[in-house]
Amino acid sequence: TLEAPRQAPALTDLTQEEMLARLQKGIRHEVLEGNVGYLRVDNIPGQEVVSKLGGFLVASVWRKLMGTSALVLDLRHCTGGHISGIPYVISYLHPGNTVLHVDTIYDRPSNTTTEIWTLPQVLGERYSADKDVVVLTSGHTGGVAEDITYILKQMRRAIVVGERTVGGALDLQKLRIGQSDFFLTVPVSRSLGPLGGGSQTWEGSGVLPCVGTPAEQALEKALAILTLRRALPGVVRRLQEALQAYYTLVDRVPTLLHHLTNMDFSTVVSEEDLVTKLNAGLQTVSEDPRLLVRAVRPKETSPGPEVGDDEPPEVVPTVPGAEAARQALVVSMFQVSVLPGNVG
Protein backbone atom coordinates (compact mmCIF):
# COMPACT_ATOMS: atom_id res chain seq x y z
CA THR A 1 0.00 0.00 0.00
CA LEU A 2 1.01 3.61 -0.53
CA GLU A 3 0.80 6.08 2.31
CA ALA A 4 0.16 9.80 1.95
CA PRO A 5 3.39 11.71 2.53
CA ARG A 6 3.59 13.74 5.69
CA GLN A 7 3.36 17.44 4.99
CA ALA A 8 5.23 20.15 6.86
CA PRO A 9 2.90 22.44 8.82
CA ALA A 10 1.74 25.53 6.90
CA LEU A 11 3.40 28.79 7.82
CA THR A 12 0.12 30.19 9.09
CA ASP A 13 -0.17 27.32 11.61
CA LEU A 14 3.12 28.29 13.24
CA THR A 15 3.79 30.79 16.00
CA GLN A 16 5.23 34.17 14.98
CA GLU A 17 8.69 33.08 16.16
CA GLU A 18 8.48 29.84 14.12
CA MET A 19 7.27 31.77 11.06
CA LEU A 20 10.19 34.16 11.44
CA ALA A 21 12.71 31.32 11.65
CA ARG A 22 11.23 29.65 8.55
CA LEU A 23 11.28 32.90 6.60
CA GLN A 24 14.89 33.62 7.52
CA LYS A 25 15.86 30.19 6.15
CA GLY A 26 14.11 30.83 2.83
CA ILE A 27 15.26 34.41 2.24
CA ARG A 28 18.89 35.50 1.92
CA HIS A 29 20.28 38.88 0.95
CA GLU A 30 23.56 40.75 0.56
CA VAL A 31 25.14 43.63 -1.32
CA LEU A 32 27.61 42.43 -3.95
CA GLU A 33 30.53 44.21 -5.59
CA GLY A 34 29.46 47.12 -7.78
CA ASN A 35 26.67 47.96 -5.30
CA VAL A 36 24.44 45.21 -6.72
CA GLY A 37 21.72 43.97 -4.37
CA TYR A 38 21.23 40.20 -4.18
CA LEU A 39 17.97 38.69 -2.89
CA ARG A 40 17.44 34.92 -2.89
CA VAL A 41 13.90 33.72 -2.19
CA ASP A 42 13.28 29.97 -1.96
CA ASN A 43 9.56 30.15 -1.11
CA ILE A 44 7.09 32.98 -1.79
CA PRO A 45 5.22 33.82 1.44
CA GLY A 46 1.48 34.50 1.27
CA GLN A 47 -0.60 37.49 2.29
CA GLU A 48 -1.27 36.27 5.84
CA VAL A 49 2.42 35.79 6.58
CA VAL A 50 3.38 39.11 4.97
CA SER A 51 0.70 40.94 6.96
CA LYS A 52 2.19 39.57 10.18
CA LEU A 53 5.89 39.81 9.36
CA GLY A 54 5.96 42.52 6.68
CA GLY A 55 7.53 45.06 9.04
CA PHE A 56 10.34 42.65 9.86
CA LEU A 57 10.98 41.86 6.17
CA VAL A 58 11.12 45.53 5.23
CA ALA A 59 13.40 46.49 8.12
CA SER A 60 15.81 43.55 8.03
CA VAL A 61 15.92 42.75 4.30
CA TRP A 62 14.33 45.23 1.92
CA ARG A 63 15.64 48.44 3.48
CA LYS A 64 19.22 47.14 3.18
CA LEU A 65 18.76 46.69 -0.57
CA MET A 66 17.12 50.03 -1.31
CA GLY A 67 20.43 51.90 -1.72
CA THR A 68 21.82 49.49 -4.32
CA SER A 69 22.29 50.43 -7.98
CA ALA A 70 20.71 47.23 -9.37
CA LEU A 71 18.97 44.15 -8.00
CA VAL A 72 19.37 40.43 -8.65
CA LEU A 73 16.31 38.40 -7.60
CA ASP A 74 17.43 34.77 -7.35
CA LEU A 75 14.52 32.33 -7.90
CA ARG A 76 16.68 29.39 -9.01
CA HIS A 77 15.76 27.40 -5.89
CA CYS A 78 12.16 28.62 -5.58
CA THR A 79 9.85 25.71 -6.39
CA GLY A 80 6.58 27.23 -5.18
CA GLY A 81 4.83 29.55 -2.79
CA HIS A 82 1.49 31.24 -2.23
CA ILE A 83 -0.50 32.92 -4.98
CA SER A 84 -1.46 35.73 -2.59
CA GLY A 85 2.23 36.68 -2.34
CA ILE A 86 2.51 37.54 -6.06
CA PRO A 87 1.24 41.15 -5.84
CA TYR A 88 3.68 41.94 -3.02
CA VAL A 89 6.77 40.93 -5.00
CA ILE A 90 5.58 42.68 -8.18
CA SER A 91 4.49 45.85 -6.36
CA TYR A 92 7.88 46.49 -4.77
CA LEU A 93 9.40 46.50 -8.28
CA HIS A 94 6.57 48.47 -9.94
CA PRO A 95 6.35 52.28 -9.71
CA GLY A 96 3.46 53.41 -7.55
CA ASN A 97 2.06 56.00 -9.95
CA THR A 98 -0.29 53.41 -11.53
CA VAL A 99 -2.11 50.28 -10.39
CA LEU A 100 -1.56 47.47 -12.90
CA HIS A 101 -3.60 44.32 -13.56
CA VAL A 102 -0.88 41.67 -13.86
CA ASP A 103 -2.70 38.33 -13.92
CA THR A 104 -6.01 36.50 -13.60
CA ILE A 105 -6.08 33.15 -11.81
CA TYR A 106 -8.76 30.53 -12.51
CA ASP A 107 -9.55 28.05 -9.72
CA ARG A 108 -11.26 24.86 -10.96
CA PRO A 109 -12.78 23.50 -7.66
CA SER A 110 -14.64 26.76 -6.96
CA ASN A 111 -15.01 27.68 -10.65
CA THR A 112 -13.93 31.26 -9.86
CA THR A 113 -11.41 33.71 -11.23
CA THR A 114 -9.30 36.10 -9.16
CA GLU A 115 -7.66 39.19 -10.61
CA ILE A 116 -4.20 40.09 -9.33
CA TRP A 117 -3.32 43.80 -9.26
CA THR A 118 -0.29 45.67 -8.02
CA LEU A 119 -0.81 47.30 -4.63
CA PRO A 120 -1.58 51.03 -4.49
CA GLN A 121 0.56 51.28 -1.34
CA VAL A 122 3.39 49.22 0.13
CA LEU A 123 5.08 49.09 3.48
CA GLY A 124 8.37 50.94 3.10
CA GLU A 125 9.65 52.03 -0.32
CA ARG A 126 9.45 50.63 -3.83
CA TYR A 127 12.60 49.85 -5.80
CA SER A 128 13.30 52.67 -8.24
CA ALA A 129 12.04 52.04 -11.78
CA ASP A 130 15.30 53.56 -13.08
CA LYS A 131 17.34 50.69 -11.61
CA ASP A 132 17.92 47.39 -13.43
CA VAL A 133 16.44 44.15 -12.08
CA VAL A 134 17.65 40.67 -13.09
CA VAL A 135 15.73 37.49 -12.23
CA LEU A 136 17.74 34.24 -12.05
CA THR A 137 15.96 31.01 -13.01
CA SER A 138 16.72 27.30 -13.24
CA GLY A 139 14.99 24.17 -14.46
CA HIS A 140 13.61 23.83 -10.91
CA THR A 141 12.00 27.28 -10.70
CA GLY A 142 8.30 26.48 -10.48
CA GLY A 143 4.74 27.58 -9.77
CA VAL A 144 4.31 30.99 -8.20
CA ALA A 145 7.98 31.83 -8.85
CA GLU A 146 7.38 31.19 -12.57
CA ASP A 147 4.36 33.49 -12.59
CA ILE A 148 6.38 36.26 -10.95
CA THR A 149 9.18 35.77 -13.48
CA TYR A 150 6.74 35.76 -16.39
CA ILE A 151 4.95 38.91 -15.20
CA LEU A 152 8.20 40.85 -14.66
CA LYS A 153 9.42 39.78 -18.10
CA GLN A 154 6.15 40.79 -19.79
CA MET A 155 6.23 44.14 -17.98
CA ARG A 156 9.81 44.59 -19.27
CA ARG A 157 10.77 45.26 -15.66
CA ALA A 158 13.37 42.49 -15.40
CA ILE A 159 15.96 40.67 -17.49
CA VAL A 160 15.57 36.91 -16.98
CA VAL A 161 18.88 35.03 -16.90
CA GLY A 162 19.38 31.28 -16.55
CA GLU A 163 17.44 28.22 -17.68
CA ARG A 164 13.90 27.66 -18.96
CA THR A 165 11.68 27.16 -15.91
CA VAL A 166 9.89 23.90 -15.15
CA GLY A 167 6.45 24.89 -16.48
CA GLY A 168 4.68 23.78 -13.31
CA ALA A 169 1.36 24.72 -11.75
CA LEU A 170 0.26 27.55 -9.49
CA ASP A 171 -1.64 25.36 -7.06
CA LEU A 172 -1.60 21.59 -6.52
CA GLN A 173 -4.03 19.44 -4.53
CA LYS A 174 -3.48 15.88 -3.31
CA LEU A 175 -6.67 13.88 -3.88
CA ARG A 176 -7.39 10.42 -2.45
CA ILE A 177 -8.54 7.96 -5.12
CA GLY A 178 -11.73 6.49 -3.68
CA GLN A 179 -11.16 4.73 -0.36
CA SER A 180 -7.75 3.42 -1.41
CA ASP A 181 -4.30 4.41 -0.20
CA PHE A 182 -3.53 5.93 -3.60
CA PHE A 183 -3.36 9.67 -4.08
CA LEU A 184 -3.34 11.85 -7.19
CA THR A 185 -1.62 15.22 -7.33
CA VAL A 186 -3.63 17.56 -9.59
CA PRO A 187 -3.08 21.16 -10.74
CA VAL A 188 -6.28 22.96 -9.70
CA SER A 189 -5.47 26.59 -10.62
CA ARG A 190 -4.10 28.16 -13.75
CA SER A 191 -2.88 31.54 -14.90
CA LEU A 192 -4.88 33.16 -17.69
CA GLY A 193 -2.02 35.52 -18.48
CA PRO A 194 -1.09 39.10 -17.59
CA LEU A 195 -3.90 41.62 -18.15
CA GLY A 196 -6.30 38.68 -18.43
CA GLY A 197 -5.50 38.04 -22.10
CA GLY A 198 -3.93 35.32 -24.16
CA SER A 199 -4.59 31.59 -24.26
CA GLN A 200 -0.96 30.60 -23.71
CA THR A 201 1.07 31.27 -20.58
CA TRP A 202 4.16 29.77 -18.99
CA GLU A 203 2.34 26.69 -17.61
CA GLY A 204 3.47 23.52 -19.30
CA SER A 205 6.12 25.23 -21.43
CA GLY A 206 7.97 27.22 -18.76
CA VAL A 207 9.38 30.75 -18.93
CA LEU A 208 12.09 31.24 -21.53
CA PRO A 209 14.97 33.40 -20.22
CA CYS A 210 16.09 36.55 -22.02
CA VAL A 211 19.66 35.24 -21.70
CA GLY A 212 20.06 31.48 -21.57
CA THR A 213 22.91 30.07 -19.48
CA PRO A 214 23.39 27.09 -17.11
CA ALA A 215 21.81 27.85 -13.73
CA GLU A 216 25.12 27.58 -11.86
CA GLN A 217 26.57 30.33 -14.08
CA ALA A 218 23.50 32.59 -14.02
CA LEU A 219 24.69 34.94 -11.25
CA GLU A 220 28.06 35.48 -12.92
CA LYS A 221 26.31 36.20 -16.22
CA ALA A 222 23.87 38.58 -14.55
CA LEU A 223 26.70 40.58 -12.95
CA ALA A 224 28.44 40.86 -16.36
CA ILE A 225 25.21 42.17 -17.91
CA LEU A 226 24.79 44.71 -15.11
CA THR A 227 28.41 45.86 -15.55
CA LEU A 228 27.71 46.53 -19.25
CA ARG A 229 24.45 48.33 -18.47
CA ARG A 230 26.18 50.44 -15.83
CA ALA A 231 28.59 51.63 -18.54
CA LEU A 232 25.81 52.59 -21.00
CA PRO A 233 25.39 56.27 -19.94
CA GLY A 234 29.14 56.85 -20.37
CA VAL A 235 29.16 55.17 -23.79
CA VAL A 236 26.25 57.33 -24.98
CA ARG A 237 27.87 60.48 -23.64
CA ARG A 238 31.15 59.79 -25.45
CA LEU A 239 29.26 59.01 -28.66
CA GLN A 240 27.52 62.37 -28.45
CA GLU A 241 30.82 64.16 -27.88
CA ALA A 242 32.41 62.39 -30.88
CA LEU A 243 29.50 63.28 -33.16
CA GLN A 244 29.64 66.93 -32.09
CA ALA A 245 33.39 67.13 -32.64
CA TYR A 246 33.92 65.13 -35.82
CA TYR A 247 30.81 64.25 -37.83
CA THR A 248 30.97 66.03 -41.17
CA LEU A 249 27.18 66.23 -41.76
CA VAL A 250 26.85 68.98 -39.19
CA ASP A 251 23.18 69.72 -39.87
CA ARG A 252 22.21 66.18 -38.79
CA VAL A 253 24.11 66.24 -35.50
CA PRO A 254 21.30 67.76 -33.34
CA THR A 255 18.84 65.07 -34.49
CA LEU A 256 21.39 62.34 -33.78
CA LEU A 257 22.09 63.71 -30.29
CA HIS A 258 18.35 63.83 -29.58
CA HIS A 259 17.94 60.25 -30.79
CA LEU A 260 20.76 59.00 -28.56
CA THR A 261 19.28 60.75 -25.55
CA ASN A 262 15.90 59.07 -26.05
CA MET A 263 16.99 55.56 -27.06
CA ASP A 264 15.53 52.66 -25.08
CA PHE A 265 18.32 50.35 -23.91
CA SER A 266 16.10 48.11 -21.73
CA THR A 267 16.72 45.03 -23.91
CA VAL A 268 20.49 45.46 -24.26
CA VAL A 269 22.26 42.56 -22.54
CA SER A 270 25.51 42.28 -24.55
CA GLU A 271 28.01 44.33 -26.55
CA GLU A 272 26.56 42.82 -29.73
CA ASP A 273 23.07 44.02 -28.77
CA LEU A 274 24.40 47.51 -28.12
CA VAL A 275 26.34 47.76 -31.39
CA THR A 276 23.37 46.49 -33.43
CA LYS A 277 20.94 48.90 -31.76
CA LEU A 278 23.23 51.93 -32.08
CA ASN A 279 24.03 51.29 -35.74
CA ALA A 280 20.40 50.69 -36.70
CA GLY A 281 19.31 53.87 -34.94
CA LEU A 282 22.14 56.17 -36.04
CA GLN A 283 22.09 55.07 -39.68
CA THR A 284 18.31 55.43 -39.91
CA VAL A 285 18.31 58.91 -38.42
CA SER A 286 21.34 60.17 -40.36
CA GLU A 287 20.53 58.28 -43.60
CA ASP A 288 24.26 57.61 -43.69
CA PRO A 289 25.39 53.94 -43.89
CA ARG A 290 28.99 55.03 -43.29
CA LEU A 291 28.19 55.99 -39.70
CA LEU A 292 29.34 52.91 -37.79
CA VAL A 293 29.87 51.92 -34.18
CA ARG A 294 32.17 48.99 -33.44
CA ALA A 295 33.15 47.28 -30.21
CA VAL A 296 36.95 47.12 -30.06
CA ARG A 297 38.83 45.71 -27.09
CA PRO A 298 42.02 47.78 -26.79
CA LYS A 299 45.33 45.93 -26.75
CA GLU A 300 47.60 46.37 -23.79
CA THR A 301 50.11 49.11 -24.46
CA SER A 302 53.72 49.22 -23.34
CA PRO A 303 56.34 52.05 -23.38
CA GLY A 304 58.17 50.50 -26.34
CA PRO A 305 59.03 47.27 -28.17
CA GLU A 306 60.70 44.59 -26.14
CA VAL A 307 63.11 41.89 -27.24
CA GLY A 308 61.18 38.80 -28.19
CA ASP A 309 57.96 40.60 -29.24
CA ASP A 310 55.93 38.26 -31.46
CA GLU A 311 54.27 41.06 -33.45
CA PRO A 312 56.34 42.05 -36.51
CA PRO A 313 57.12 45.74 -37.10
CA GLU A 314 54.69 47.63 -39.32
CA VAL A 315 55.71 47.56 -42.99
CA VAL A 316 55.30 50.84 -44.90
CA PRO A 317 54.32 50.13 -48.55
CA THR A 318 56.67 51.53 -51.23
CA VAL A 319 56.44 51.84 -55.04
CA PRO A 320 58.73 49.24 -56.67
CA GLY A 321 61.69 50.58 -58.65
CA ALA A 322 61.67 48.07 -61.52
CA GLU A 323 59.48 48.93 -64.52
CA ALA A 324 58.03 45.43 -64.80
CA ALA A 325 57.12 45.43 -61.12
CA ARG A 326 55.45 48.84 -61.44
CA GLN A 327 53.47 47.65 -64.46
CA ALA A 328 52.35 44.51 -62.57
CA LEU A 329 51.23 46.68 -59.67
CA VAL A 330 49.14 48.91 -61.95
CA VAL A 331 47.55 45.89 -63.67
CA SER A 332 46.64 44.43 -60.29
CA MET A 333 44.92 47.68 -59.28
CA PHE A 334 43.22 48.82 -62.52
CA GLN A 335 41.33 47.10 -65.31
CA VAL A 336 41.15 49.08 -68.57
CA SER A 337 39.08 48.16 -71.62
CA VAL A 338 36.93 49.69 -74.38
CA LEU A 339 33.38 48.34 -74.42
CA PRO A 340 31.10 48.09 -77.50
CA GLY A 341 29.93 51.48 -78.67
CA ASN A 342 33.36 52.99 -77.95
CA VAL A 343 32.58 53.25 -74.22
CA GLY A 344 35.67 53.37 -72.00
UniProtKB/TrEMBL annotation:
GO BP term (any one): proteolysis
Domain Tail specific protease positions: 15-214
CDD domains: Peptidase_S41_IRBP
Gene3D superfamilies: 2-enoyl-CoA Hydratase, Chain A, domain 1, 3.30.750.44
GO cellular component annotations of the record: cone matrix sheath
GO molecular function, one term: retinol binding
Keyword Hydrolase assigned: no
Keywords: Receptor
Protein name: Interphotoreceptor retinoid binding protein
Organism: Paradoxurus hermaphroditus (Asian palm civet)
Lineage of origin: Eukaryota, Metazoa, Chordata, Craniata, Vertebrata
